[in-house]
Amino acid sequence: MTIRRQPESIDYASPTQFVLKINQLPEVQFFITNCNLPGINLGEAVIPTPLKQIPVMGDELTFENLSIGFLVNEEFTNYIEIQKWLNAIGFPQSRDQFTGFKANQSVTPQNKLGVQNDSVPGKATPANAMFSDATLTLLTNKNNPIAEVKFEDLYPVSLSSLEFSQEQTDVQYLRASAEFQYKYYTITQL
Predict the structure, then answer these.
(1) 3-class secondary structure, 169
(2) What is the DSSP letter of 124?
(3) 114, 140 Cβ separation under 8 angstroms
(4) Residues 6+ apart with CB under 8 A from 15
(5) Are 137 and 155 in contact (CB under 8 A)?
(6) pLDDT band for position 64 (50/70/90)?
(7) What is residue 20's three-state secondary structure?
(8) 173, 61 contact by CB (below 8 A)
(9) What is the average pLDDT score of the chain?
(10) Helical residues (DSSP H) of 10-115, grouped into ranges
(11) pLDDT tens, 140-164?
């Protein structure tokens, strides 16, 4: 049996070679400037003894949030897309914000939902219409896809503020950030 100790590829991964697609946010996709591949933590259990406590592997994974940064477009449509989604989840003014978003703005694929709204043909109504799937495509240095990270049932949990100022001496375009929670993610090499 031969043990291989030399890697086949000695190229390094570039932090600029990625494409992130969030199904619910088509306006945001083009303007994304950065995102993270969230970390995973298994955790641990501890067996108490009179001497030293003995750590053993845990049995529950926790995933860090998906964080993105993006440039805000001139019409603010990409910022407003996330803001509307957050308002629909939290419905600060009325429950109509929740039902209106599900019926009119959710882009969750119909085959994933399985239920139709009788009053609005072709519009989804179940609770999972508030979630979206996302795909982070990792690229080689020659812009060829090397792996896909698929996020299941993603939803926003925060959106940054925007800072306006008349004191700027040079134009620095508005940037925003958002964080998302999700059920889990899987990585597939292509």
Answers:
(1) coil
(2) B
(3) no
(4) none
(5) no
(6) very high
(7) strand
(8) no
(9) 85
(10) 26-29, 77-90, 96-104, 110-113
(11) 988 999 999 999 999 999 999 999 9
